[in-house]
Amino acid sequence: MKQSTASTAQVPVGKPVHFLHPLTVIIIGVSAWVAALSISWPLLHAAIIALGWLAGITGSRSLAVPATSIALSIPAGLSMLLVHAPHGEHQIAPLLTSDGLVTAGELALRFCALMTAPLAAMANVHIPDLLKALQHLGLHHSVVYVLGASLQLLPQASALISEVATANRLAGRKVTLTTVIPHMIIPVITRLLTRGADRGIALQGMGYDAPGRRTVLYPVRAHRWEILLRLIFPAAAIGLVVLAWI
Question: Cα(129)–Cα(242) distance, rounded to whole angstroms?
Answer without folding.
Answer: 34
